[in-house]
Amino acid sequence: MTSCVSCLAWGQTYWDGMCRACYDFVLPRYDHGVAQCGACRRREPLKKGFCRLCWCQARLERTTGTYTVLLPHVRLVRHHQLFFADMAGYRDTHTRPPRFDATGRKPPPRPAARPDTGHLQPALSDEVVRRHYRYGRVDLRREPAPDNPWLAWGLYLAHNLAEQRGWGSFVRGGMQRTLVMLLAGHTNGDLIRVSDFYEVVAEHTTNIDDTVEILTAMGVVLDDRQPAFDRWLHAELAGLPPAIRRDTHTWATMLRYGGPRNRARAPGTAASYLHTIRPALTVWSTRYDHLREVTRDDVVAYLDTLTGSPRARTTTALRSLFAWAKRANIIFRNPAVRLRVPQREDPVWQPLRPDELARTVTAATTVHARLFVALAAVHAARVGQIRALQLDDVDLGNRRLTIAGRDRPLDDLTHRTLLAWLEHRRTRWPNTANHHLVISPCTAGGLGPVSYPFLARPLRGLPATLDRLRVDRQLEEALTSGADPLHVAAVFGVSDAAAIRYADNARHLLARPHETDPLESPRTQAPRPGDEPNGHLGSG
Predict the structure, then answer these.
(1) Are residues 504 and 371 in the same domain?
(2) Three-state SS string across 259-271, please?
(3) The pLDDT value given to residue 528
(4) Domain range holding 478?
């Protein structure tokens, strides 16, 4: 037992008379050159200009000030408190705040409210000063938070939101680091632009919407993000003449967000319409500079190049565009008036083959994928209906399931699948506040449903997708009931028109003279292109 030649700590020494910590400090990979220490003036291996003994002394003194990093304190070291070697982790525990309470959890932040800052000096201009944010070296697991009342308020709001929504420790830590970055130097009257910190927060996997929600509750954020639809619309209209681009932009915006005399359409309607007529606008832009120059012959000539579903979709979109332009007095005459949308016959769906069903069952390897398949193949639930299911819709005791407001009996297969999913849900996210039946890692910390790609991903590329399983289930019921539309409507709650289409499809299959049992000898004919499950037959 002797003193370390470098840090003077009393204890066991090893190589060249140094303790283990000092030996690690001078390893070649750290490149700590020997020079005069900036605090104690000794010639020792230095880190950022100071020896290890001065760094240890700064660690002892920092708890008496407001600094949360060591560098400001190590410059002020003028004396040393000697210590025992290999006990650095216990030297200043009597001065540090406890990391965990009696229950083993980190103590919650103290209650805080909006700081009372008194008067406010108005800004010289209305322009918000842009800032450059980056994550610092403050570790709230070992160090106290910077002394700022706005940060204390933000951490308290984040703690309450985490308790309400059941955030895990990883999400809590990420939100705390983000708030320290944004509010450590915040002063009264400052506004934080979302565009200034969006990329930094996204790189560290913190939910940007939760961050904006907390800052909005504090009243210190300016959400200047451009909506994704507006960015897509600007890129989609690039290359068109200015007048056509301006009028088409106004029409698409009206479809998406509505207007004084126009209701907002579904989010995908405007994008689908514009994507459909974009080739036509490109062709006309080579000859014309304005929509009023487009004639009926131009519209008919372009539609003649299309057939089937593309022609029907393009006709509908062009009628919408030119009807709006006529009402807005942008054109003198509507070139798409009285254009008829071609009607196509209802597709005749064939029952799924056993090998196609087997491929789907094989692909459903996860517990949530098996739940999706059971709900679609047994109860003919749509993807949107699966996303909207709540925990209250499942009654395991009475073996009942409510889908889209319609109560249904719970079969054994779905009952076992639901039990397995609920057990997985309880084990994986025990504290989540999301009441949706189906949740994912992205929605467990919030209140919204899962995305459409999350449901479609397990069966992507297979013939028997969720929509195709729903159609096959309803078709099977129509075949079993002898093509009775009333029975189909009563079992699945579809509209009368959809039930009649399923009955006609079943009647067409049953009338085949060479087919004795459509359920045991399914047709191998593949559906025609364009006959998606979301088409005419599955519209109910």
Answers:
(1) yes
(2) ECCECCCCHHHHH
(3) 39
(4) 354-510
